[in-house]
Amino acid sequence: xxxxxxxxxxxxxxxxxxxxxxxxxxxxxxxxxxxxxxxxxxxxxxxxxxxxxxxxxxxxxxxxxxxxxxxxxxxxxxxxxxxxxxxxxxxxxxxxxxxxxxxxxxxxxxxxxxxxxxxxxxxxxxxxxxxxxxxxxxxxxxxxxxxx
Length: 148
What we know:
elongated; mainly beta; three-stranded antiparallel β-sheet
């Protein structure tokens, strides 16, 4: 299975295609901003007709889960799901099967001047291309002294 990932402001999947806005960035903030993790899987034929479990985790620069406050206490930023693709009709044997995934997040209150990594795990393993790093900008002096 081949994985391609990128960050965007927002994304959606419709009719087997990815629709992406504001994509390809690796620096955000320092204020919380919405973001989407865009994933395109190229699934080999031998992997078709099987249920695959996937998980997406947000980690800090040291590989620790990022925890955010919630009504139930601090919770890791993570999403889980399953997918299965059938053997496609009319596609030459040997051609991979595309599976697009778009995961949108609201503004995440991340620490300024920090490094983060989205880690995709499929069937218990992080595949090649299954990590996506980004940084948050430092807070400038101008941002510290805004009066509204």
